[in-house]
Amino acid sequence: MSSQQGLGKGFKRSKSCRREGWPLIVEDKASDDIGVVVSAVIPDNGRLLLIKRGEMPRRGYYSFPEGHLKSGESPLAGLARECKEEIDCRIEPLGTRVLVLEGPSNAALPDDYLERCWPPSSGRFGLHRYEVRDLASIDVSRRTKSDKKYIYIPCRLLEPPKETEAALEIVYMRPEEALGLKLKGKLKLMPTTSLVLALMKLGEFVL
Q1: pLDDT tens digits, one per residue of 143-191
Q2: At what angle do helices 175-183 and 191-201 cross, to 10 degrees?
Q3: Which domains can be identified in the chain, with CATH numbers?
Q4: Which pTM does this prediction carry?
């Protein structure tokens, strides 16, 4: 599939994706957090669950339910904890295949990172590397000091999600719908969330 197919006229090939002039947002991390983020990708009839973030970085932006792993915590244990904290419900994985994104933290990325770094090519999306892997093959202890590892895990809800202080609003959107609203300036997406939605729309990550 062409990297621009079905994503709208707002996406144009970018000539560069550089860090100059990017804002720095301070991340709110606990002392036992490690540089690995686990994220719940929850489908519902072609739509995906997104939350309006109540926490920094980027309070008020939309993302998947997600958060940092703690030292010694497995990805699935961390994901279960984050979903309980953010949307007050239990989840279970849909399989073993996950999307891994490695690169700069959301705190270091501009809002238009997706547009600046379009299109993805050969496992790279701007400054990020991505691949679909088996969850069991991922060693969360291996990471670089400068980059962050994001693990996107397809899962299902075992009970209805609830709004919390960490999730000010819960919405369901198709990838193309969320990306279209982003391009029109009507929806603020976390930069890495926008990358994942684009990869899903392009068929690079299939649930």
Answers
A1: 666 789 999 999 999 999 999 999 999 999 999 999 999 999 999 999 9
A2: 130
A3: 33-201 (3.90.79.10)
A4: 0.88
Helix (H, G, I), strand (E, B) or coil at 116: helix
Q: In angstroms, rounded to a whole number, what is the distance separating the alpha carbons of residues 171 and 186?
A: 14
**CA atoms of 112 and 43, how far apart (whole Å):** 25
- CB 93, CB 152: distance < 8 Å: no
What average pLDDT does range 133-143 have in this prediction?
Answer: 87
**CA 18 to chain centroid:** 20
**CA–CA gap between residue 8 and residue 76 (Å, rounded):** 35
Handedness of CA 166, 197, 204, 156 (dihedral sign): positive
The pair of three-digit structure tokens given for residue 135, joined into one six-digit string: 């969850």
Distance CA 168, CA 150 (A): 22
Structure tokens at 62: 């939309």
- For 96, the token pair is 């073993």
Q: Is 94 helix (H, G, I), strand (E, B) or coil?
A: coil
